[in-house]
Specification:
The structure holds two protein chains of two kinds.
Chain A: H1 7-28, E1 34-39, H2 42-46, H3 49-62, E2 67-72, H4 84-97
Parallel strand pairs in A: 1-2
Helix pairs in contact in A: 3-4
Chain B: E1 2-6, H1 9-13, H2 16-29, E2 37-41, E3 53-56, E4 60-62, H3 70-79, E5 89-90, E6 97-98, H4 105-108, H5 126-130, H6 136-144, H7 147-157, H8 169-178, E7 185-190, H9 199-206, H10 208-222, E8 226-232, H11 236-251, E9 275-280
Parallel strand pairs in B: 1-2, 7-8, 8-9
Antiparallel strand pairs in B: 1-3, 3-4, 5-6
Helix pairs in contact in B: 6-10, 7-8, 7-10, 9-10, 9-11, 10-11
Classes of the chains: A mainly alpha, B alpha/beta.
The complex binds FE2/S2 (inorganic) cluster (FES).
């Protein structure tokens, strides 16, 4: 370990290290952040929810969006059919600009 | 996902080490060891209902967890996203389960200052401490302030001793600084003799770097070159954690000789205190 030689170095270190605690910092105050819940029961995982969630997490990082991802149990419908492209759309359209993404929320529902 | 398991003395006494082990083993069996980070923290302050396990990011606070509950938490909560209701805290008044500690009566009104990192970071990992701003105050004092400015700042802050007299810390430091001698020591009295008190132990176990940093700041302010922590032998975990913290701080060059160069006066010899630990026998 190289020695820390100045306050500036220490601050740079802090910045670099911050991502390791990001998840904890954010969840300390989850109400202030966008939360995305990915249904990950057996059925959801079988339908590819895990890949989609991973993809969304990467994308959210890339776009520097402060989002808390949680997985929830089965939401009761094995549709919604979010794939990677859809996931990008959700992030850029809905999260960033507050526009609904067509065709993702099952007809008859306005919110989940 | 992060799983925080309390590794304070209270929870350790009720098998939290076994809980950590079970988490690590079962997660590895399921191939989840890279997705879920298991962290041993210091005391959450809620020992009465320990061992405490907290799951992030949904901030779920499990109480009185037993080693055999771990499998259920992993299967239900971590894998399926369903909280294990019977391990949640039961509000004694309305008899409802509370999942997020923020909504528990005990925590709701708390604003943690000295204990801000306890139960949040892994006390044996200096990186986690630095990522929450650890040692920056020391860095600031050494590179931007004179010892006198540090003393003035502490006086202005109104910080006082927590013993019976409530003596103003800045005044104490000012008096010490005036007293010139060839070897000066900063002594941290962590003996905690009052019956039933364990707040010093909580800090030492949960955020030991804050003590190391504070002692170094005090040393700079009063001109001491050595530090000594007086701890009772009945606090083995606190002793261990402090020793780890001191070694890490040394390794990072945040303690010892020639640490972050002092700005004032530029030519001052740069010996800074390095706390040593002497358990009471
Ligand atoms: S030791 Fe675990 S909450 Fe205090």
């Amino acid at each position: 370990m190289a020695k820390v030689k100045s306050l500036a170095e220490l601050k740079a270190m802090r910045e670099k290290l911050q991502s390791t605690l990001d998840l904890r910092e954010k969840s300390n105050d989850p109400d202030s952040l966008v939360q995305i819940k990915v249904a990950m029961a057996t059925c959801g995982i079988a339908a590819g929810a895990k890949q989609v969630m991973e993809h969304m997490m990467e994308k959210a990082d890339e776009l520097k969006l402060g989002i808390v991802f949680t997985q929830t149990g089965c939401m009761g419908y094995v549709f919604g059919h979010v794939d990677n492209n859809r996931a990008d759309e959700i992030l850029t359209k809905y999260v960033m600009n507050n526009e609904m993404v067509e065709g993702v929320i099952p007809v008859n529902y306005e919110t989940i | 996902m992060h799983v925080l398991v309390c590794g304070g003395t209270g929870c350790q006494a009720s098998a939290s080490a076994q809980i950590i082990e079970n988490f690590q083993r079962i997660l590895a069996e399921k191939g989840l060891q890279n997705e879920v980070q298991v962290v041993r923290t210091g005391c959450f302050g809620f020992c009465e209902k320990g061992p405490i396990v907290k799951i992030m990011p949904d901030n779920t606070f499990y109480t009185q967890v037993k080693p055999e509950d771990v499998e259920k938490i992993i299967n239900e909560h971590i894998i399926k996203g369903r909280k294990v209701t019977d391990l949640l805290y039961l509000d004694p008044e309305n008899k409802e389960h509370v999942s997020d500690s923020k909504h528990m009566g005990f925590y709701r009104k708390q604003l943690r200052i000295a204990l801000r990192n306890c139960g949040f970071i892994n006390p044996e990992n200096i990186d986690e401490c630095i990522s929450r701003g650890g040692y920056e105050a020391l860095g600031k004092c050494l590179s931007e302030m004179t010892p006198q400015q540090v003393i003035d700042e502490v006086t202005k802050s109104g910080l006082r001793g927590r013993g019976g007299a409530g003596f103003p810390t800045g005044v104490k430091w000012g008096l010490c600084a005036k007293n010139k001698c060839d070897e000066m020591y900063v002594i941290c009295n962590a003996d905690e003799g009052d019956p039933g008190a364990f707040m010093d132990r909580s800090i030492m176990e949960g955020d030991p770097h804050s003590i190391v940093e504070a002692m170094a700041i005090c040393g700079y302010a009063i001109g001491a070159t050595h530090g000594l922590v007086y701890i009772r032998a009945e606090y083995p975990l606190a002793i261990h954690r402090l020793q780890v913290a001191i070694a890490q701080a040394r390794e990072y060059g945040l303690l010892g000789k020639d640490i972050i160069p002092a700005g004032y006066p530029p030519s001052a010899s740069r010996h800074r205190p390095g706390p040593r630990i002497r358990p009471a026998r």
